[in-house]
From TrEMBL:
<dbReference type="GO" id="GO:0071949">
    <property type="term" value="F:FAD binding"/>
</dbReference>
<dbReference type="InterPro" id="IPR036188">
    <property type="entry name" value="FAD/NAD-bd_sf"/>
</dbReference>
<dbReference type="Pfam" id="PF01494">
    <property type="entry name" value="FAD_binding_3"/>
</dbReference>
<dbReference type="InterPro" id="IPR050816">
    <property type="entry name" value="Flavin-dep_Halogenase_NPB"/>
</dbReference>
<protein>
    <submittedName>
        <fullName>Pyridine nucleotide-disulfide oxidoreductase</fullName>
    </submittedName>
</protein>
<dbReference type="InterPro" id="IPR002938">
    <property type="entry name" value="FAD-bd"/>
</dbReference>
<feature type="domain" description="FAD-binding">
    <location>
        <begin position="6"/>
        <end position="223"/>
    </location>
</feature>
Length: 415
């Protein structure tokens, strides 16, 4: 049997693969997406950042999402005991989108994939990429297995690996490396939020900070379901006995603010426990391939950066591949790896400084410094490439220095 031949083969139909495929299709390239599961399928990653709206808009996928009437997210609330830190995306340093959505990913990803199919893109569900062989010129032959075990091959000029935690090329090419982010775990589920309060309190995304390493997320959806989950050090999870339902029941007692709202509700699915979710790779691209989204890197859920990084990298990779297909030379090291690393490094500083406690000091210090808050808010909205923002430009030292100043001030006043 003759191999099928495409310009670009994309592994995975999550947001990263879909945005990449949409761009390439709009540019007239022959693109095919191979997706292991049957949609709609559950995946975690339900709180978006305003920055990803730019990506969906640019590739023509915004209207299909608007039609789903997802819960609007116009900011985020962080609680620490009796102190509340509210970020409002309309009050941010960098110009750009000031809202996005809180989404059940099964519906969200399905809406995107359906729209792409309507635009004529070939998405093959329930097919798994099992192997990829690269030729010296960077073109490749990909082995695909369908759900009844039949195998076939696809020739491609380029591959975008958007396989998320499938991490197809990192596994096949040995590109995995340990993440620099501390080892944390998460446990989560969905509930029918029957005790949801009226108004903003009921629909606001909230992070209830239990202690420096432990926090609880509450992400209400427009369909009455709310996503709840804990993040903490592996050792905390290990200290609880029982199955995941029992562990989550016990952990809910940690949240004074939310315990009563959720404690006696049934879980919509058996709580999922993911250990050591942070991932990193030795390189983001090579001859004939690019890694995007979670397949490339995942830091931590605390700032909801996963989907936005997935769409940012998917779109960037697609643009560069499109250029190469048109005969333009691309410097992948600077234009892709360098660009992506810049944004990832900003978020990585924020995640690290969250767990050192320094960023929490800035969030919960009173009185608030409104200028600083605007600059941090732009980062939390996903605008991490804007060097006019000191909280982007000096990301690796500004948080620690400001936290230090706050501690010194506190020390002085208590003396
Ligand atoms: P995915 O959405 O995972 O899609 C990858 C697709 O590839 C899947 O559909 C899969 O079936 C397919 N695939 C896998 N292997 C193969 C194969 N061999 N062949 C073919 N197809 C394959 N992000 C946020 O933005 N906001 C959040 O609030 C958030 N919360 C999170 C909470 C936790 C606990 C964790 C662990 C992550 C969270 N994330 C969050 C991150 C988010 O889940 C991911 O960053 C995001 O889903 C990445 O999108 P993607 O397109 O790269 O991959």
């Amino acid at each position: 049997m003759q191999n099928e031949c495409v310009d670009v083969l994309i592994i995975g139909a999550g947001p990263s693969g879909i945005v990449a495929a949409a761009y390439l299709n709009n540019q007239g390239h022959n693109v095919k997406v191979i997706e292991k599961s049957k949609f709609p399928r559950f995946v975690i990653g339900e709180s978006l950042l305003p920055r990803c709206m730019d990506h969906f808009e640019e590739v023509g996928l915004l209207d299909c999402l608007k039609a789903e009437h997802f819960e609007v997210k116009s900011g985020a609330r962080f609680l620490s005991k009796d102190v509340v830190c509210n970020f409002d995306f309309s009050q941010k340093h960098t110009p750009g989108w000031d809202w996005t959505w809180q989404v059940p990913r099964a519906d969200f990803d399905n809406a995107l994939a359906t729209e792409l199919i309507n635009k004529g893109v070939d998405i093959i569900f329930e097919h798994e990429v099992t192997n990829v062989i690269f030729n010296p010129d960077g073109s490749s032959v990909t082995s695909v297995k369908n759900n009844i075990g039949d195998n076939f091959k696809i020739d491609a000029k380029f591959i975008i690996d958007s396989s998320g935690y499938g991490r197809v090329l990192p596994r096949l090419l040995g590109l995995d490396k340990p993440s620099s982010i501390p080892t944390h775990s998460s446990i989560f589920t969905h509930v029918k939020d029957v005790k949801r309060p009226e108004g903003k309190e009921g629909t606001l995304i909230t992070f209830d900070v239990i202690d420096k390493d432990t926090w609880f997320w509450v992400i209400p959806f427009s369909n009455g379901i709310t996503s709840i989950g804990f993040v903490g050090e592996n050792s905390l999870f290990d200290s609880y006995e029982g199955n995941t339902t029992e562990v989550l029941n016990k952990m809910l007692k940690l949240s004074n603010y939310y315990h009563d709202r959720f404690c006696d509700l049934n879980y919509e699915f058996v709580p999922v426990h993911i250990k050591n979710y942070s991932k990193a790779v030795t390189k983001l691209c090579g001859k004939g391939f690019a890694l995007t989204g979670n397949s490339a890197e995942f830091l931590d859920p605390v700032f909801s950066s996963g989907v936005t990084f997935a769409t940012e990298s998917g779109l960037k990779a697609a643009k560069l591949i499109s250029k190469e297909l048109q005969g333009v030379t691309v410097n992948w090291d600077t234009d892709y790896a360098g660009y992506i690393a810049e944004g990832v490094n900003v978020f990585a500083s924020y995640v690290k400084e969250w767990y050192t406690g320094n960023l929490q000091t800035l969030f919960f210090h009173r009185p608030e410094n409104l200028e600083v808050k605007k600059q941090i808010c732009a980062v939390l909205a996903g605008y991490v490439w804007d060097k006019t923002n000191p909280f982007v430009k000096k990301h690796n030292r500004i948080i620690a220095s400001m936290a230090h100043v706050i501690s010194m001030q506190k020390e002085k006043t208590t003396k």
